[in-house]
Amino acid sequence: MNLNIDAKKENTYDAIVVGTGISGGWAAKELTENGLKTLVLERGRDVKHPDYPTATKEPWQLPYADRPTAEDLEKQGVQNRTGYTIRQSTKHWFVNDLENPYSEKEGKRFDWMRGYHVGGRSIMWGRHSYRWNEMDFEANAKDGVGVDWPVRYKEIAPWYDHVETFIGVAGQAEGSAVLPDGKFVAPIGLNCVEDELKRSMKDKFGRLLTNGRVANLAGPLTHNKSPQRGTCQFRNLCSRGCPYGAYFSSNSSTLPAAEATGNMTLRPNSIVYELIYDEAQGKATGVKVLDGETGEQVEYYAKVIFLCASTMGSAFILMNSKSKRFPNGFGNDSGELGHNIMDHHLGVGASALVEGFDDMYYTGRRAAGFYIPRFRNLGNEKRDYLRGFGYQGGAGRSGWSRLVAEMSIGAQLKEEVITPGSWSIGMGGFGEILPDHSNSVIINYDKKDKYGLPTLLFDTEFKENDFKMRKDMASDAAEMLSAAGFKNVNSYDNPTQHGVGLGIHEMGTSRMGKDPKTSVLNKYNQVHGCKNVFVTDGSFMTSASCVNPSLTYMAFTARAANFAVEELKKQNL
Amino acid sequence: MKRREVIKRTALLMGGVVSAPAILGILKGCTAKPGVEWNPEFITQDQAYVITEMAEIIIPKTDTPGAKEAGVPAFIEQMVFKAYSPDNRDKFIADLTDFMTESDFSELSSEKQKEYVFLAHEKAVTEKLRSDKSFVMAMKELTMLGFFTSQPGATQVLQYEAVPGGYSGCQPLSEVGRTWAT
After folding, report:
1. B130-160 b/e with 16+ CB inside 10 Å = b?
2. Dist CA A306 CA A142 (whole Å)
3. A16, A42 contact by CB (below 8 A)
């Protein structure tokens, strides 16, 4: 009896954070800095900054010219649906698909790219960090789509300030209402050809092209809380993990801050599969954990629980947590849990050849090129679809590979390859997907993963609004490149080459809203039906905007964590 | 006895100076063809000879190293047998076999070998044949990939900077010099 009480005490914390990715790292930092003894659970292996095994490998030190082998693709074929994620230099950051299967409703693809290790996808994320604007938060109400966001931009703006200052975002202030400025370190430069497009877009269309805003330290941080972080060395090997700590990841940034408080206990190999609900108290009292190494089952307890296990990971835990109070999944009074899945649709844009500039080149490898913020359906414009899209792109001179299809061979090839090839430029769109109840995920109890746990079954597809928007995404890109005087303009649109998910921006399985009857979370990311459980990863997103979402997860997570601390003080949780 | 054991013991007998793959070649009863200074793991010496010579014809030694010195022939074998799908691997080997029969490559003088490869290449480029339709183009693609990701290719023919330290987006080409390897 006493033993049991002791054991329970030993496994009891003020707070539990599930997941160590972008959201989990932020929850851990904010909760521990506020003095809460916090247990941080990660389902995968430990990764400590700066132990990234391939980070300093030279091209010739990677076998197979860094390409995946046939054996790699057997194990990680789904993870390679992007065509770029499985490399000799990066494959260890992505799951083994044979050990971690999922299912897709017949004829419908869902592309689920993920890594199970401390830091999660914060290690290999794209790092683009754009604020939402006022219009984004008002869009659902205005269009009568989904439910209204229970928050507006001005409530989130100070939290954007807070997270940007800590992580460091490269960017150029532009004074644009569509793409609000943030707290920037220096911008990452544009090259001559990109500058040319920027001028042409301003003159001919009145549209903005700006330096990609990425969480890379193009200049030093403005605080001294991350002594382990140095400035960007322009190697552009970010997705291997950065030994300089020059881009934001949980490993390089938030977890060391949490560690420094002395209040964090980090437990890797801890697969949370269920929340423990106490019917008498009407609260969640803890989580059930399966140890991924030993197979041991352990319970941990806390006053407050933050689910930051990723949009699908948290959906799984909630759906798998059934009780008398929540027979259809934890917090699922509305029936919206697992529904309204969103991503950004992509694989559409244009490219062109650039004549001239033959005497100009560049030095250094950038982590980002340019960004063109949304310009459609603003003000009074009404296209035949709702919302809009932005573009990411870049220009460069071609290298050795251009000569594969040329006449060059032998000694002549070695001569010709010394001079870089002509300039080309390209841009790809990221389009907003509307929330739709029918895009959903459920638990598939018939298919088990390597731990014997049930898995997920996705039922998602692109809808009419997406296909209509893509026409503009292709033709607008081509029009802007042509207007700049570039040649051989080629637009492309490959809607069938990806499923929902390939943007790796999954959102929306536990949307927030004002009404508990139509949403899972309230405006502070609290489960409507159980206030001491917060969900702050992409699950909470009520709509998708067209900008990369991670910065917004950070801002909401920091806000929710500080709210939770206040509520604990007031004894409201 | 397991193969690994055999190799280890043989290595001891030979004073441990010969690399394991080399011994593997000896165990297979292979002797190196002239020009094959590496030990193929999956293909025959005759096949290795053709791949080696073709790679060197595509990227020869000049005042900088060529494909042989950069280890490209062994790279090609690894790519075909490990990175290619089984279907693509089988196709590559079938195309290689056809090429050897059609050209009688091993019997040609090195001057004639070069002439043959250059002509086949010119025809393929003119007809816009890709690597799936032309063995020479498949070899060219693999040779260039292997060579320009090798240290000699990246640093002596092209230029490479492991840690650039900054970005300069509009710089005169004359200042930058050669094409960047990455």
Report:
1. ebeebbbbbbbbbbbbbbbbbbbbbbbbbeb
2. 31
3. no
In-domain check, residue B35: no
Confidence of residue A494 (pLDDT cuts 50, 70, 90): confident
Residue B36 within a domain: no
> Is there a single domain that holds both residue B52 and residue B135?
yes
- Residues in A closer than 8 angstroms to B125, CB to CB, are 405-407
Q: Is A291 left (phi over 0), alpha (psi -120 to 50) or beta?
A: beta
Cross-chain residue pair A363–B167, CB shorter than 8 Å: yes
Q: Which residues of B touch A56 (CB under 8 A)?
A: 162
Nearest to B83 among A67, A195, A365 (CB): A67
Residues B21 and B62 in one domain: no
Q: 3.30.460.10, 1.10.3720.10, 3.50.50.60, 3.40.50.970: which CATH number matches A1-51+93-171+224-337+441-449+508-573?
A: 3.50.50.60
SS3 A277: strand
Please report, for residues A89, A93, A135, A201, B79, the alpha-carbon distance to residue A66 in angstroms, rounded to integers and kept in the order given: 6, 14, 43, 37, 11
Q: Which of A42, A393, A361, A2 is nearest to A209 (CA)?
A: A393
Q: Do B19 and B97 belong together in one domain?
A: no
- With CB atoms and an 8 Å threshold, state whether A363 touches B161: yes
One domain for residues B51 and B95? yes
pTM for this entry: 0.94
Instruction: Tell me the ipTM for this assembly.
Output: 0.95
**B39/B30 Cα distance (integer angstroms):** 9
Q: Provide the mean pLDDT of chain A.
A: 97
Among B125, B170, B182, the strongest candidate for a mutation testing the A interface, having the largest count of A CBs within 10 A, is B170
Q: Within this chain, do residues B106 and B154 fall inside the same structural domain, yes or no?
A: yes
Minimal Cβ distance to B170: which of A360, A365, A399: A360
User: In this predicted model, what pLDDT tens digit does every residue of A296-339 receive, in sequence order?
Assistant: 999 999 999 999 999 999 999 999 999 999 999 999 999 999 99
Nearest Cα residue in chain B from A191? B169
